[in-house]
Amino acid sequence: MFLIKTWRSVAFGLYGYKNFTKSGFMEHSKNFKPEDMQVQIEGKNCIVTGANSGIGYATAEGLASRGANVYMVCRNKERGEAALSEIQSATGNKNVFLEVCDISSISDVKSFASRFSSKDVPIHVLVNNAGLLENKRLITSEGYEMNFAVNVLGTYTLTQLMLPLLEKAAPDARVITVSSGGMYTVPLMEDLQFSGDKFDGVVQYARNKRVQVALTEKWADMYKDKGICFYSMHPGWAETPGVATSLPSFSKSLSGKLRTSEEGADTVIWLALQPKEKLVSGGFYFDRAEASKHLPFAGTKGSHAAIDSIDDTLKTLSGL
Ligand SMILES: NC(=O)c1ccc[n+]([C@@H]2O[C@H](COP(=O)([O-])OP(=O)(O)OC[C@H]3O[C@@H](n4cnc5c(N)ncnc54)[C@H](OP(=O)(O)O)[C@@H]3O)[C@@H](O)[C@H]2O)c1
Questions:
Q1: Residue 305 pLDDT class (50, 70, 90 cuts)
Q2: Which InterPro entries does UniProt cross-reference here (predicted)?
Q3: CB atoms closer than 10 angstroms to residue 10
Q4: Which residues are catalytic?
Q5: What pLDDT shows up at residue 4?
Q6: Phi, psi angle pair for 305, to nearest 5°
Q7: All domains of the chain in start order, with CATH
Q8: Mean pLDDT of 62-90
């Protein structure tokens, strides 16, 4: 087990340094087709969680600049209002709205979903971007480990509760979940809240991000006949407020080599704009292409079989 863990970390570090940094983006962008992004989506309704900062902000701005109606879900009203007004003035799009919701709280997610559902608008794109890497074991007021509460349980609850509105936009509805390349370092595990003594936020975050990828596969299969498609993606390594706060040494050591938030958001926006026939529901994307969900010889492949049991646990915990 020690050897395989070491191999995963080494393989991730080497693969990441070559591909996830800014130079990786530059290299991959040689294959990008500019026309893929020259798409207007007026009239489409998009929800972006964690839209006041980093990749979520760049995603909301990118969608607003293409004419979409954008609902920015942010946990802090002041930060959300500031981002909203910046996006409105940068894009000239007044159909950008703020929804305040703390994704770490199931009750808050439920009250947001019920408020929002009363608008009865079809949702064409749900971007599950809100996420965090909390290094300490923090417990939410509802009793859940904080990384898990935001990255998995809140994201799961929101997605489930948005399904009726997504169905209204079918067959053009899609859910894009922003995972992380960090998930390559771990298999899918049923221990969702890191029960061991030596809490490691980086490992817990990676486990959460693996759950997102496996859940995306499960959702794609469950809702394949409903006209809703599901994609997970990873943005590479981008210089954002989240990375600076949670991974200060990583951020410093790769200073000047990290992607911008816009480069991190590029594949999210690309996934929102492409015709569905070009995409694979349940797929994991990176730099505008489907990517492997597993590193070679990492022994993580078989682990996705645990997703049914994890799905049952999430159903129970969310009370859905
Ligand atoms: N940057 C990277 O290199 C990288 C790499 C892999 C994956 N990702 C993923 O990309 C996504 C965006 O991260 P980022 O790097 O852009 O970090 P960021 O700048 O910290 O943005 C994260 C966003 O999520 C919000 N958020 C956090 N907890 C929330 C909660 N409980 N309720 C509602 N919103 C919440 C934050 O709000 P506040 O501003 O209020 O905190 C912020 O708007 C995350 O899912 C992250 O895991 C990033």
A1: very high
A2: NAD(P)-bd_dom_sf, SDR_fam, SDR_member_12
A3: 11
A4: 205
A5: 86
A6: -60, -20
A7: 2-318 (3.40.50.720)
A8: 98
Instruction: Find the 54 Cα to ligand 1 centroid distance in Å.
Output: 7
State the pLDDT at residue 2.
79
Query: Can you tell me the mean pLDDT for 304-319?
Result: 98
Q: State which amino acid sits at residue 318.
A: S
Ligand 1 centroid distance, CA of 300 (Å): 25
Among 151, 243, 252, 261, say which to mutate for ligand 1: greatest number of ligand atoms within 8 Å of CB. Answer: 243
Q: What would the mean pLDDT of 250-256 be, rounded to a whole number? A: 94
Where would I find the beta strands (DSSP E) of the chain? 45-49, 69-74, 96-100, 125-128, 173-178, 228-233, 284-286, 289-290
Ligand 1 site, residue 233, Cβ cutoff 6 A: no
Query: Mean per-residue pLDDT for 182-201?
Result: 96
Nearest to 136 by CA among 210, 246, 53: 246
Q: Answer yes or no: is the C-beta of 78 below 6 A from any ligand 1 atom.
A: no
**102 in ligand 1 pocket by Cβ < 6 Å?**
yes
